[in-house]
Structures are given as C-alpha cells and as structure tokens.
C-alpha cells in the first residue's frame, strides 16, 4: 500500500512524510478515523514509506524488495495485532490460520472493518478482543531485535478492543520502547480507549473522504459514472467499502426488498419477517448497512413529502411508493420509524448480531405502523 493508492487526504500524507524527513517521528501514534475510511491504509502506507529502500519525495517507491514484502504483509519487521476470538485450546496452527485470513482480507479489502474479519473467521458468536495473551506477544515482539536491522513497527488494529488486563500489560513498553520501535495504533472508536493508553500516544486524526475524493476514486477505480458515484457516496456514510458495495447493488432490488419488508410489517406477517431476517444475516455487513441507509433515505423522503412533494428527487416506482407510504402513516409514526432505523444501523456498525437486530426492528416497526396510520 502506497500513499498514492489512497484517495485524497493530501495534507495529511504530506504531514506524515515530513515527520520522517524532519526527524520528528513520534514512537507511538494513534490513527483515529471511521470504519471504512483511510486509517488502516494510511498506517500501512506510512509503514511502507518508512521502510522503503528507495523513498521518493512523497511516497514509497513501490518496487523495492521491502515494498514488495509490505504489499503482501509479510515484512519480518512489521507485526500486526488485531482482535480475534480466543481458541478453545492454544494451537499454533489455529493462530496461523487466523493470521492468514487477516492477511488475505487486508490484501483484498484494505478498507475492511472488524466485522469483515469476524465474518471471514466465522466467530460472530464469540468474544473478539485483544487478550492479555496477545498483549504478552506485543511485549515479546518489542523485546526482539529487528530482523533486517532497521525500524521495527507494530500495527495494532482496534486497540479499543483490548481488555483492561491487556492494556495494562503493554503500558510500560508503550511508554519506554526500545530504540527503533514504532507503534501505529488504528482506532475507530477513540472514546472507548483507556485514558492510560491515550496519554501515551500522539493522535493523528484521519478525516473522512470528501464527496469529491470518493467520487474521483469510484469513477477511476470502479468505472462508475459520475451520477452513480454521487448516489454511492450518499449511501456510504463516508465508508469506501459501503460506496463500492452500493455501486454493485441494483437500486431496483433494494426498492423491492424495502417494499416487501414494509408490507410484511404492515400485515404483521412475522413468519415472513423471520425469514427476511435469516436472509439479512447471509449478506455482507456492508450490504446490511446499505439496506438500512436505503431504508432511512426512503423514510426521510416520506417525511419530507408531508411538507411538499417537490422536496424529493425520487422518480418512478420509488417515488410512487414514498408518496403512498407517507399518506398511510402519520408524521409521528414516520419519525419513530426513522429513529428505530437509525439506532439499528448504529448497532449494526458496532457488530450487533444482524439477524436478531433486523428481526427486533421489524417487530417494532410493525407495531409503529399499525398504531400510527395516517
């Protein structure tokens, strides 16, 4: 991963490069951004630049042996730590498999979130965290000499998933690391980190992608039209994987799914709603969140047309359904639906069980719809 592969964020990239060129490299840094954003790719690109044998003025060369190792995430002096489920027994083969799944995931989806890893490992019903045992490995890694004689880098993904014992175990080495050791922590929920950890890190705030940055990326790398890129950005909530998933989805399919969902809610057809929740679980987390954002947009438009029809831009079957749905439910009911959809999306983004979350939401929406008819 090189800086040039990451959309936009030019000022931040320049700041990172200058920190090395001016010898102002903080030994422990916290990259804080949103899921689906550039925090992890930037940390990896930064590590690649720092280790590159033939650095260019503002990026790694991308062709030296070090850059090739970094592209495959197999550099011996770059160590990755991330949340995972505790195995039933200590098994080196199992840990190797977990590391391989993570490596393949990040190669294929550099903007992946923890939920993607959990799905890949099939550990949704287990506690995924950075345990005290993993923290001991961090301490052991820090104490080892660099394999290639240069900088040793530890990239810790989701440090907010450290339990208290794990966090306390690394405090000393975090504050007083050996020479030529760099910590790059990548967090998406800064507020969940222990203050004792935060106080030992230099914060690097990663902005969300702007509309122009994301649109340029989608047009250039996903062959999207400008119009499709705008729509994808609208439903992405700043997440690049969400935007890419939205491009691949058919809007007509989303509309049919939403209409079926609402009709089953109106009719209190709980057997059908249960089946829908089972199907909902089977799709990727990115697509789950897209469906929730699509539903939010539909309800938002239904609220807007209460004021005036020309406030929405939807056309065709989508517009017809919005108008009918808005007329069928009073304003208070629509606002309650919007609130429940927003809360469910919030929990899905934080790895709630998708089947349970969607089914519970369906039951609540069914009650709201039937008690707030227009």
Low-confidence stretches: none
> Please, how many domains?
2
Query: Quick check: average pLDDT?
Result: 89
CA radius of gyration: 23 Å
Alpha-beta content class: alpha/beta
CATH third-level topology of the largest domain? Rossmann fold
Largest sheet: 5 strands, parallel
Shape: globular
Order of helices and strands: HEHHEEHHEHEHEHEHHHHHHHHH
Total beta-strand segments: 7
> Span from first to last CA?
54 Å
**From the 3D coordinates, which CATH architecture of the largest domain would you assign?**
3-Layer(aba) Sandwich
Number of helices: 17
Describe the protein in words.
The chain is of the alpha/beta class and 374 residues long. It folds into two domains: 3-207, Rossmann fold (3-Layer(aba) Sandwich), CATH 3.40.50.300; 249-371, Up-down Bundle (Zinc Finger, Delta Prime, domain 3), CATH 1.20.272. It is built from 17 helices and seven strands. It has helices at 10-21, 39-51, 65-71, 92-108, 114-121, 132-143, 164-175, 195-198, 211-221, 226-236, 240-248, 251-266, 270-282, 285-304, 316-328, 331-349, 354-371, and strands spanning 28-32, 78-81, 84-85, 128-129, 152-157, 181-187, 202-205. The chain has a five-stranded parallel beta sheet, sandwiched between helices. A two-stranded antiparallel ribbon has the order 3-4. The longest helix is centred in the last third of the chain and has 20 residues, at 285-304. It is globular.
